[in-house]
Structure formats: C-alpha cells, structure tokens
# Entry
Amino acid sequence: MPGTYAYPRYSYVPPDDDGARHPVVVAGGGLAGLTVALDLALRGQRVVLLDDDDTVSLGPRAISFAKRTLEIYARLGLGPLLLGKGVTWTVSRVFFGDRLITEFDQMEEPGHQYPAFINLQQYYLERWLVEACQATGLVDLRWRNRVVAVGNRPGEVALTIEVPDGCYRLTADWLLACDGANSFVRESLDLPFVGRVFHDRFLIVDVVMQAGFPAERRFWFDPPFHRGGSVLLHCQADNVWRIDFQLGWDCDPEAEKDPDRVCARVRAMLGPDIPFELEQVSLYTFHCRRLEKFRHGRTLFLGDAAHQVSPFGARGGNAGVQDADNLAWKLLAVLRGDAPEALLDSYDEERAAAADENILASTRSADFITPRNEAARAYRDAVLDLAARHAFARPLVNSGRLSRPAVLRASRLNTPDAGGAWAGGLPPGAPAADAPVLCDGREDWLLRHLAADGFSLLLFGAPDEVPAAALTAPAGRARQGAWPVRSVFVSPAEADGVLWDRDGLAAARYDAQPGTAVLLRPDQHVAARWRGFDQVAVAAARRRALGIVGEERERIPA
Amino acid sequence: MTRLDLSPRLSDPDGLFEVLVEAHGGLAPEASRRLDARLVLLLANHIGDVEVVKQAISAAMAAAP
# Structure
C-alpha cells in the first residue's frame, strides 16, 4: 500500500431500486468509466455507475497524460488540478549500455495552455473525478456493486448486481462497459478479444526518493545495472518514481516480487547513496488486442475493456479518456432523440480506428524492446549502435512512441473539404488546436471559448471581413434545438466580441484566411471547414456530424 | 514509385564481393549478423525509400529456395 497516498473509502449504500430502469448504467469506475459519467452528467444526463470496489484504482496504472487528454479534462473542469499536481516533463533520453544515444524534447511548439505531457498517479485523477461526479448531483455512484450477469437484449440491457446484502436487478437503456482489461461484460457476452500477447514480463516498481534526477523520461537498453534487459525511469508526483525492469519470459514471477530482490535491483540502478522506499511492486505481461466492435446493441465498450496496448507510449489511459470524450455527446444526442442510433456506430468506427493506430504504434515499440527472435535482436542492436554515432539512426530508436490524439480521417461524420486549397491546417476529423488569444484585453486560450453544449463555428477575420449573415444568424441557431452552433470570432485585429489572435497562431494552426470558417463538434474535433461562411453548408455539416442522413432528415427536423 | 534496379550496375563486381567478405573476416557468426544488420540499415537509409527496400526483400526471398 503506497505510503504517500491515503486511499479514500467510499461508503456502500444498500440499493433500494431493485428492478428499476435507468437510461445509462456505467460498469466500472476507473478512468474511462468516471470520465464518461462526468461528461454525461455535465451535459445534464443522469448516470448510475457501478464499481465492485470502494476506492480508487490500486496498483500501478496510467501515469502519463497527454495534452489532448489534459484539454478534455479542461473541458470537464479538472484542467487546473491536473496542472497543479502533475509533473510537467518534455525531455526523453535513451541510453544503450552506459551511452546516451538520443534525446528529444516532446514540446513541439509554444503557445498551448497545456503541455505535451504531465505525469500523475492515476489514483489522484480518479479521486478528483469521483468528487466532480458527486458535485454534479447526477451521478449515482454505487460502490461494492459487482455486475454478475448481463443480458444484452434488443433495446435494453438486463443486469444482475451483487452487493454485500445479496443481489438485485437493474435494466439499462444503455450499458457502458468500462470494466477494464478483464472485462466481465465482455466475457459474459462471449466476445472475442483478439491480438497478440508478448512473451515478456516486466517488474513495475514505484519508489519514493529524493533523487537528483530531472523530471524526464529515461530509457535504457541493456544497461550495466540490468544486463540483457531494458529499464524505464519516470517521475510522478510526491517524489514517487516509476521504474520498469524488463525481466524476460523465463523469470520466476513470484520470486521477483520479493522485496529484498526488488530493492537489490533498484539499488544496483541508483547506486548505494540514494535512499529510497518501495511503494508498490507488481509484475505484468502485456497484450496488444481489441474487440472487433465496440458497440454491441445497447452495450458500448470503452477503455481497456475495448482495447489493450503495451504500456510504452502512454496509449492506454489516454485512449480511454478519448473514448469517453467521443461517446458522451453522441449518447446524449441519441438518448434525447436529436440524432439517430446510428450515430453510435460512428463511436465504434472512430475509436476502433484510433485503437488500431495505438495498437500499431505500441506493437512496434514492443517488438523493438522485446525482439521476437535473434534476427530482430540483431537489427535492434544495430539501430542502437548506429544511433550512438549517426543522426540517421536516432529516429529508428523506439522506446515507445508517445500518445498522439487520433485524427478521425475516415469518419462518416466528416464533411470532406470541397476545394479551397488548404495548405495544412486541421483537416476534418482532427482535434481542435489551442492557441493564445486576447479576450476583452485579457490573455486567454482559444479552447476555453468553445461551446460546452453544442457545436462551435470558428470564424476567422476582422469583423468587417466576416459576412453579415454570420454575425446576425450564426447558422440559424433558432432551428438547431439542443445542439446549436455557436459562433466564435477570431480576429487579427482587436474589436468588441472577438478573440484577438494577436500572435496569429490561431490562424496559422487552422490555415485560416480572412473569411475561413471551421465547424467543431461537441468533442472539439473538426467536422468541416470552408474558405467562406455559408449558412446552408454549415447546417448540412452539423446534421451530418449528428449522423442525420437520408430519411432521418425527415424524422429529425434539426 | 521507384523500381528496384536489378540491372548490373557495378563497375568492379569482384571488388564489391571482396570488401563484403573481408568485412566479415574473423568475426563470430553473431558479430557477423550484427554487422550485416548495420550495413542493411546504412544502405536502406541511403536509398531512403521503404518501397524500394520492400522490393529488395522480395527479390532476396525469391532468389533462394
């Protein structure tokens, strides 16, 4: 049990609604489950969340949170907490033996509110998520509630739930399965979870120490203190450091967890003069695999329940948060009759494509770190030897390709570019880019001005360059029901009611010219973009992003 | 797409064969394998086109039973 952190204990409350029906039930109160529950609740939706434990996650979980994840949590109100407690880092160093062979700085460019990465123990984030869910008054958090049977029927999901007092039943209009890598929901629906297992074992050690190491990621291939394996060192909050020792497939997992043995490994690494305390020790083997479909009728899978990756690249936790971000608004639009059920198939398509990206990147990293055969090892070592001497080989060194947000290029919700000669910028499907702006003379950030309750239309140009139609009737707001398009004016000149893009970074990142319009979905991904504002085109792109196509246009008038 | 050039291009083929063999002189099999891996990576970077390398892999695999 960690010494730096007191685990909260949440009270079990005996259920009093046996047989009740709820619109949304979330199974699993980890990162994905709590995030999707909070997102739904902040949009006004009641949620029942079932968790089989009575505290936040135990054991080593996610530690690195990427900029896109931080921006999602900023939308959910947790951005400042993450920035305040997390450790910001940007530098990665890779060693081969005792030689430094490559180092790089993740921070691609200045002018973003959130850094490329922060490191933070997952239990802090989960605790804040629980508190934020409680504060909404709309999330019914049920601790020590274990799902023991799932009936996935047409139009509903029947659940049997075991609690300390016995069993009870609920019916859910929608079940969000966020119950982790060993998902009971997935197993009880008998869904194949296909991919690769890597024949390797890793010893994960969290230690507390006042180390003189800078806050950066360090990765060693075959270091003198751990011959034949790799080692990863990463900082966390409260002077907790994560150390990852590659042990190989043939090690004895139980013997390796012996504290004396673990301490000897850590001491060999740190040297005799750095005092440390073990906080937690675990051993794991990883998979790269996913469900074929993330939607099965009224059951939707998120996070590790839907997909698993190797840990190199921080692509597990960050993907789970993006799953939640992608699904929450869509589910709400369907629940409220503003969009057809088929909108939820776009969740499957978009996030399965993102999972494939993550699986590909993390499989390649794992193949580099754990060579499959002697030939693979020869190439791996050849890269490392060459990298020490030649710049060309450094990009080939793969100690983990860090999480990048998915660009949903092939999504059916995108309205493709229709001409308009774009020189880069953000294509349909890309997540919105932040930029520094001035609002009423104060320094501010573009993303903070995006609509919380619908679509945003970024309109670039000085007020006299933006068509009058855009100013008076932003895409016909009156007819857009629950998912309006809200205009955000981004101007190169200071004026009333605009965000002043003084440094020109917003225009540069969106490849905007005077008159450019960019439509952003409720999850801040680009739905469409034009060189000029056209009310009819904006309305059509909004309908498309809500999945309203064909005969649905008759049924759903928006 | 650039095609792998399979026409004879070397002005001194015997000389090329000699430098390859000499590079491996006295090396244990493991060290030889690593040297070859470094050579492949250096040459692949010089070519700079993974499509050409894929064609070379196919040609190499097809050339022996």
Remarks:
- The two ends of chain A are 53 Å apart (CA to CA).
- The mean pLDDT of chain A is 92.
